[in-house]
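Input sequence (79 aa), recorded before submission:
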Amino acid sequence: MIQQMWSFLTNQRKATYLLLIFYAVGVAGMVLDFSRPLFIRLIPFALLLSAFILLINHKGTKSIRLVLIMAGGAYRDWE
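Predicted structure, token format:
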């Protein structure tokens, strides 16, 4: 099961579709007044998910600098 999920996330086309659907739901949630507070609280998790998918699909070397930049951006938005 985990191997299937990993192969799904590392497929760039499938990961792109997943993120498109994910962000479309997020935009719809932000537009609706009754769900806006929930979706605002979910923004840091959405950024972490996006960063994770971008990191595992990154074709260049996965340097510690790239990981620190992504983690720093997520931490900054978390507060």
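Checked by second reader. DSSP finds five helices and no strands in the chain.
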